[in-house]
Design a protein that fits this description.
It is a single chain. By secondary structure, the protein is α/β, with parallel strands linked by helices. 34% of the residues lie in helices and 21% in strands. It has a seven-stranded mixed sheet with strand order 3-2-1-4-5-6-7, with helices on one face. α1 links the parallel β1 and β2. α1 packs parallel to α6. It starts with a strand and ends in a 26-residue tail after the last helix.
């Protein structure tokens, strides 16, 4: 079954997930339509708006070339909860998030048939922004990722899949995020295939209380 997938992401944690679309389309032989949504800082002044109009077509060209995925629409957005953005979204679409710096409100969530997130920690611990930074600061030995349903409460929806990896002494926030993303890519692809094939992924939920030394929930980094 052909589906329309809306992928909210960035070009840091989300880079390997974006690249996975091209290989997935070839492996599955089941094409799907993709809308890629990237967060765009608010622009001020006429000059900034002109420069954005020049840069966006070039950025889209580069991203499409890197993806190797033909059926893709790319949207740069300042506010995902703005009614004007909601009107741009396809109907009856599924959505997935892999690193995004905006909070999804109820009207946006309700727009989709399903909406999931890949969060770089083993929930319910290390919710919220920059979890890898907090794991390193707290000298954790292990971390991982969680594929979960998106709700109005941050990183609080039903868990679909979790997995873990060790934290190395040499890790930085960037290298740890990259290793977590690489670990999560096969699950990302399996989840999309389950949407296409209309099957249900089996639940894999870990006992996060045995993974982390510091039992912290939501944090914002200052």
């Amino acid at each position: 079954m052909a589906i329309h997938l809306v992928h909210f992401t960035n070009r840091h944690f989300g880079q390997v997930f974006m690249a996975a679309h091209g290989s997935l389309a070839l492996e599955s032989r089941m094409p799907y339509t993709l809308t890629l949504v990237l967060s765009e800082p608010k622009t001020k002044g006429v000059l900034s708006q002109i420069l954005r109009c020049i840069k966006h077509p070039y950025k889209k060209y580069i991203i499409k070339k890197q993806l190797g995925f033909r059926q893709v629409n790319i949207i740069f957005v300042e506010s995902v909860n703005d009614p004007s953005f909601l009107k741009k979204l396809p109907t009856n679409a599924h959505a997935i998030c892999t690193g995004f710096n905006q909070i999804f409100e109820v009207d946006l969530i309700a727009q989709f048939t399903s909406f999931v997130n890949i969060h770089p920690s083993v929930l319910p611990y290390y919710r919220g922004p920059v979890p890898s930074r907090w794991c390193l600061a707290n000298q954790e030995k292990k971390t991982g990722f969680t594929l979960h349903q998106i709700t109005e409460k941050i990183d609080n929806g039903d868990i679909i899949h979790q997995d873990i990896l060790p934290i190395y002494a040499s890790d930085t926030e960037s290298t740890l995020d990259q290793r977590i993303a690489l670990l999560a890519v096969p699950v990302f692809k399996t989840y999309i295939l389950s949407l296409i094939q209309e099957t249900k992924m089996p639940i894999q939920q870990l006992e996060s209380g045995t993974i982390y030394a510091t039992k912290t929930g939501y944090k914002s980094f200052h």
